[in-house]
Design a protein that fits this description.
Distance between the termini of chain B: 44 Å
Oligomer: heterodimer
Order of helices and strands of chain B: EHEEHEH
Number of domains of chain A: 1
Radius of gyration of chain A: 14 Å
CATH class of chain A: Alpha Beta
Strand content of chain A: 15-25%
Radius of gyration of chain B: 13 Å
Mean pLDDT of chain B: 91
CATH architecture of chain A: 3-Layer(aba) Sandwich
Number of domains of chain B: 1
Mean pLDDT of chain A: 95
Distance between the termini of chain A: 22 Å
Low-confidence stretches of chain A: none
Largest sheet of chain A: 5 strands, mixed
Chain lengths: ~150, ~100
């Protein structure tokens, strides 16, 4: 499985503007909304659901990566997006490091298998330090798409 | 002198969302304080029980049977430790747990 199977290409943000945990989460979900993946009426509810999940424990998994996520009834298949923060965002991560690479996932209510497989795919992709390093300095959307699709990091 | 021991126990994942990030994190946090090596297997997939990310790679769905193994010096509390770890995997969680 490749991350390109569930990441919405048009929603990728190579240069996040926000500098807080809530801010980048809002920015990423707003980008998925702009790409047409759920109605405006659900936007705030999805933001609240993802922030609620963060309150239960940070999704900052260390090595400058975070995977904020939630289930929500407004999506019929698992979707995600990727954002990169050059400055880094305080995220209360497991290793205390600021987060530079974010992968946000929203899954349907009743598809736990899809969620587990997507998490595994993200973790597998991000195991390679070279991929994480290249994402952090990616020039734009095309570079990020190639990297998460398993393309060369050189 | 402390005896070496290896103890295995099977457990069925009860969380309706499977072994996702939160139970994996709880398991790894608890495993990390143990002196023994902790391994979790799901079919032919093996994970270091002290790494939450390794545990996520197991893709353990609700109802999956996992084996938890503790290897190393027998502290006299190994049986209790493995039981406590299995309890995390057997916990049903709640609807907001994801």
């Amino acid at each position: 499985m490749s991350m390109t199977e569930f990441v919405v290409r048009d929603a990728i943000l190579p240069a996040l503007a926000a500098t807080t945990r809530e801010g980048v989460i809002r920015e990423l979900i707003g980008s998925l909304h702009s790409a047409g993946h759920f109605p405006n009426t659900d936007l705030e509810d999805i933001v609240r659901a993802v922030l609620r999940r963060e309150q239960l424990g940070s999704t900052g998994i260390g090595r400058t990566i975070a995977i904020p996520h939630s289930r929500h009834a407004s999506v019929t298949r698992l979707i995600g997006t990727v954002g990169v923060s050059r400055a880094g965002v305080p995220f209360d991560s497991i290793d205390g490091e600021a987060v530079h690479v974010l992968v946000l996932l929203i899954s349907p209510q009743d598809r736990p298998g899809d969620h587990l497989r997507a998490l595994e795919c993200v973790v597998q992709t991000m195991r390679d330090d070279a991929v994480v390093g290249a994402l952090r300095v990616a020039a734009g959307l095309d570079d990020i798409w190639r990297l998460i699709g398993g393309g060369a990091t050189a | 002198m402390t005896a070496k021991s290896s103890l295995r126990r099977s457990v069925v994942v009860a969380n309706p969302n499977g072994l996702h990030m939160r139970p994996a994190t709880r398991f790894a946090q608890q495993a990390r304080v143990l002196p023994q090596r902790v391994t979790v297997t799901h079919g032919d997939r093996r994970a270091d029980g002290k790494s939450s990310l390794d545990l996520l790679m197991l893709i353990a769905m609700p109802g999956a049977e996992l084996w938890v193994e503790l290897e190393g010096d027998d502290t006299g509390e190994t049986a209790e430790a493995i039981r406590a770890l299995c309890d995390i995997l057997a916990a049903p969680g709640d609807d907001n747990d994801h």
